[in-house]
Amino acid sequence: MSTASKVLAELIDALRCLPGVGAKSAQRMAFHLLERDRDGGRRLAAALTAAMERIGHCRQCRTFSEEPVCALCAGAARDRHVLCVVESPSDLAAIEQATGYRGLYFVLLGRLSPLDGLGPDELGMDLLRRRLAEGEVQELIVATNPTVEGEATAHYLAQLARDAGVRATRLAHGVPLGGELEFIDRSTLAHAFGGRQALD
Amino acid sequence: MSTASKVLAELIDALRCLPGVGAKSAQRMAFHLLERDRDGGRRLAAALTAAMERIGHCRQCRTFSEEPVCALCAGAARDRHVLCVVESPSDLAAIEQATGYRGLYFVLLGRLSPLDGLGPDELGMDLLRRRLAEGEVQELIVATNPTVEGEATAHYLAQLARDAGVRATRLAHGVPLGGELEFIDRSTLAHAFGGRQALD
Ligand SMILES: [Zn+2]
Ligand SMILES: [Zn+2]
Question: Which range is the signal sequence, renumbered to this chain (chains A, B) (predicted)?
Answer without folding.
Answer: none
